[in-house]
Write a structure and sequence with these properties.
The structure is a single chain. The protein folds into 4 domains: 1-147 and 173-199, PPPDE domains (endopeptidase fold (from Nostoc punctiforme), Alpha-Beta Complex), CATH 3.90.1720.30; 206-322, Glutaredoxin; 334-342 and 521-651, no CATH class; 345-399 and 406-490, no CATH class. The protein is built from 27 helices and 10 strands. It has helices spanning 16-25, 76-86, 102-114, 120-123, 133-146, 163-166, 169-184, 213-222, 236-252, 275-281, 307-321, 333-336, 351-363, 375-392, 409-425, 432-441, 445-457, 462-472, 477-490, 494-500, 503-516, 522-548, 560-576, 581-595, 601-611, 614-620, 635-647, and strands at 3-11, 33-39, 42-47, 49-53, 65-72, 207-209, 225-231, 264-269, 289-294, 297-303. The chain starts with a strand and ends with a helix. This is PPPDE putative peptidase domain-containing protein. Keywords: Hydrolase, Protease. GO terms for molecular function: peptidase activity.
């Protein structure tokens, strides 16, 4: 006779992660997942030790999601004996929000009951959160919360907040307090049922403990690369090497930023559960012993606490599992010397003049009765925006401020409402002074985060409003110029850059960018080339980081169709650009970043480059009349063009 097994899924943040994650981490995280197992009419979970309650009656309330795992043939008495043994391992003092949590426990229990594992969208990508600046900054604070005091030792000081947390401590504190309270067993409102959970929206431990063969074999089946640490809680060398192994799991574990590449790291204590059976299966006679698996097969092992040897084997395993992109061996000094920092338009105009021009445009236009805000409301909001910009960018003869003020959410909301109202009331050409004010405002990290959050959630935001205003009248040259400069400055904020390069936002950005690359006005082409460079540089930065972390250069979120469209548009723009060496420089650098380390390079991009005669077009810029009367003059630009043509484009 079999019994059904279910997994209950809860959100420890009670919705705060979904609301604030993009602003804090640069990633959309829909929840911080807590899981429990329901079997034999009981809900079993791990927090303050192993807890048992009637289904749905725990302090977490109603589950966000109920997943049917399958059936178990194990009887209830055997399961109760297993839980008694696990209570020695899953104790309250060992609990850690990141490293040893409820999901570690439920994965073990599911393995024992069914031979399976909790779904990948919950247990996988454990290092994703820690790879974000916010996660890295928050890690010491979380560690300090769970650090057990040493008898007789002075209390450890609380870690100083980093710049990432200090930029918005209220948000950080609210998320952390909500999660910690729920994880520790505090009362809180239950999460509401919502959308399916995704793999990149999980926060679990980077290390997966296994206490039975079923869990371990499932880990081997579901991951290309696996590193297993056979350990013993009574072994001194095991305890010494454990922190090194945990750091490797954080650095080299599976993560979204590398398109799911990386190794799964697991720790098997031979004194816990059926760990001794696993040790016997693989002939483990001493601890610690580290085994390395590729596609389910053991390929190497390290005996003893040899940190250098373990790291070397991990790197070799990842190299075999995910061979690096061929471009990692390409000698391209001119391309490698290019800065990955965005090109920004930071010149501050006479702000009163810009404001007066906008006011004049408003007065010249009848205010519609159905506008989203009244004329007085819009005018008042713009006045506060002007005052903020004057304080943030004081005139050269003004006293220097002690620090630049950050825009507050209430003010940003009012300015966005005013922008919406003006975009609905004024003709597109009359909006360029407003776009110029936002060009400066978006350099403020607080404004950048506001825009990113608005774009990601589909809420009203100035960038989307102004992009759509441009699409109403693509002949509005002054507006397209200032909107392009606003878009270029948006790449000063990493979160906003990622948001602009994904989903519908990328489509809208591309719709403005591609035709602007061929505009008849040199200033527009320069601004467009700057936006194209910034977008390609952001992509290249992610690829380079992937190489550094062992992902081989494959970045998260690569889109073949968009990259091919961009490569084609940049080559066409290079072909037609005869006047500006600066534009050619930016476009060539952009092309280099789009091509280098591209996952689509061999199969899709190379044939297209040949058809478009990219090499010939690039080399033509060096000839008389190719760009200016005598061709490109600057030595560094010539070197870059020659290198991109010779090493990244086919003959």
């Amino acid at each position: 006779m079999t019994s059904p097994v279910q997994l209950y899924v809860y959100d420890l943040s009670n919705g705060l992660a979904k609301q604030l994650s993009l602003q804090l981490t640069g990633r959309q995280i829909d929840g911080i997942w807590h899981t429990s197992v329901v079997v034999f009419g009981k809900e079993i979970f791990y927090g303050q030790g192993i807890g048992i309650t009637a289904p749905g009656r725990s302090h977490h309330g109603t589950p966000l999601q109920v997943i049917d795992i399958g059936e178990t043939a194990i009887d209830e008495d055997t399961f109760d004996e297993y839980l008694q043994e696990m209570k020695q391992h899953y104790t309250a003092d060992k609990y850690h929000l990141l490293d040893f949590n409820c999901n570690s426990f439920t994965n073990d229990v599911i393995g024992f009951l069914t031979g399976g594992a909790i779904p990948e969208h919950i247990k996988d990508l454990p290092s994703d959160f820690l790879s974000t600046p916010f996660g890295a900054a928050l890690r010491p604070t979380i560690d300090n919360m769970y650090r057990r005091p040493v008898p007789g030792a002075p209390a450890a000081p609380a870690p100083a907040p980093s710049a990432d947390l200090a930029s918005n401590p209220a948000l950080a504190a609210s998320v952390l307090q909500a999660v910690a309270a729920q994880a520790a067993g505090g009362q809180g409102p239950s999460a509401q049922a919502g959308h399916p959970l995704h793999a990149t929206e999980t926060l679990t431990a980077p290390l997966h403990p296994c206490t039975n063969p079923a869990s371990f074999h499932n880990l081997l089946r579901t991951h290309r690369a696996v590193v297993a640490d056979f350990t013993d809680q009574q072994c001194g060398p095991c305890r010494m090497i454990a922190p090194v192994f945990e750091r490797l799991a954080e650095e080299k574990g599976v993560r979204a930023g590398m398109s799911g590449r990386g190794a799964a790291f697991t720790s098997i204590d031979i004194r816990v559960g059926q760990g001794n059976a696993l040790a016997a299966e693989y002939g483990i006679r001493a601890t610690p012993t580290f085994l390395f698996f590729l596609d389910g097969k053991k390929i190497s092992e390290v005996k003893g606490a040899d940190a250098a040897a373990i790291r070397s084997e991990v790197d070799l395993l990842l190299y075999q599992a995910y061979p690096p992109h061929p471009h990692t061996k390409l000698d391209a000094p001119a391309v490698q010397a290019l800065s990955l920092n965005p090109i920004l338009f930071t010149q501050v105009p006479a702000l009163d003049t810009v404001f007066n021009k906008l006011s004049s445009n408003i007065k010249a236009t009848p205010w519609p009765a159905d506008a989203p805000a009244s004329l007085d409301q819009a005018t008042q909001a713009l006045g506060t925006m002007l005052a903020y910009l004057k304080q943030r960018y004081p005139a050269a003869d003004a006293p220097s401020a002690t620090g630049k003020p950050a825009a507050q959410p209430a003010a940003l909301g009012a300015w966005t409402s005013a922008t919406h109202a003006l975009a609905s009331a004024l003709p597109a050409e009359a909006l360029f002074p407003l776009a110029d004010l936002w060009r400066l405002a978006v350099l403020d990290p607080a404004a950048g985060a506001w825009c990113a959050s608005g774009i990601a959630s589909g809420a009203s935001n100035p960038i989307t409003i102004l992009l759509r205003a441009y699409h109403r009248d693509t002949s509005a040259r002054s507006l397209v110029l200032t909107v392009l400069r606003l878009l270029a400055n948006s790449f000063a904020h990493a979160t906003l850059a990622r948001t602009l390069l994904s989903g519908a936002a990328r489509t809208e950005l591309t719709g403005v960018l591609v035709p602007a690359l061929l505009h008849d006005h040199a200033g527009v082409r320069t601004a467009a080339a700057s936006v194209a460079f910034n977008a390609a540089a952001a992509l290249q930065k992610a690829r380079v980081e992937s190489v550094r972390l062992g992902g081989g250069g494959y970045a998260d979120g690569e889109d073949e169709d968009w990259e091919i469209e961009m490569v084609s548009a940049v080559i066409e723009a290079l072909d037609k650009e005869r006047a500006s060496e600066d534009v050619v420089h930016r476009l060539t650098a952009c092309l280099a970043f789009l091509l280098r380390l591209s996952p689509f390079y061999e199969d899709q991009v190379l044939p297209m480059l040949e058809v478009l005669q990219a090499k010939s077009i690039l080399l033509g810029k060096l000839e008389k009349g190719g760009c200016g009367e005598d061709g490109i003059a600057k030595k560094d630009v010539r070197s870059l063009v020659e290198e991109v043509a010779g090493k990244l484009c086919p003959a």
